[in-house]
Amino acid sequence: MKTIPPVKKEVTTTQLGYMGLSIGSIVLSFINFGIADNTVSKVQWLLFYPGIILLISAIHNIKQKSIWEISSFFLFALFWFSLATAWTSGFWDYSKTIEGPKMRIISAFFVVGLVHLSFITLFALQTNKVVFFLFFSFSLAFFFFILKIVYGASGVLAGCPFFMAALLSFYVWLAKTLNNFVGREVLPMGDPIYDWTKFHFKID
């Protein structure tokens, strides 16, 4: 019979961070699918619930000195807040095509976010398989977001990876919470895909 190694119990807000990712992602997927719109009543979920939770989790991880969680949670906290501010202020109506300087500003925002997210996704190779595919889904969502803004692509293209990210975020939250509560691995998340400590970049 296979022996399941015990999991060290610890008090952390990392689980809440993944909950914030899940809630924000499901709202964005519904908006892209056309199930909801980006009116004030919908954006409140993005602003007051997942955004604040991600910010709290990122600040708490500063004490834990967890650089990867700090970077990823801060990035998405700012992303949720930026979207909420742009939509509630009327600067950007997601249901309408944008052109000119406004389109370039919003596109640049998502391109910069995609560059940062790409590095976070690469670093996620050292966490586990579920977390890696979670942030890979986010990278795809950002890419299709840019296609929608610049070329008017269908929002469904961005909605699908956002929905997948929501499911994976929820699974990570549930796995971390349950495993920590029980004290052993109940829901597996897979092994790391790549160990970055083996990587050495040398300039002669």
From TrEMBL:
Keywords, ordered alphabetically? Membrane, Transmembrane, Transmembrane helix
GO CC list: membrane
Q: Which organism is it from?
A: Anaeramoeba ignava (Anaerobic marine amoeba)
State the annotated membrane topology for this chain: Multi-pass membrane protein
What is the designated name of this protein? Inner membrane protein yaah
Transmembrane regions listed in the UniProt entry: 16-36, 42-61, 73-92, 104-125, 130-150, 156-174
Question: Can you tell me which family this protein belongs to?
Answer: Belongs to the acetate uptake transporter (AceTr) (TC 2.A.96) family.
Q: Give the matching InterPro entries.
A: Gpr1/Fun34/SatP-like, SatP
Task: State the organism's lineage.
Answer: Eukaryota, Metamonada, Anaeramoebidae, Anaeramoeba
The places in or outside the cell where this protein is found are: Membrane
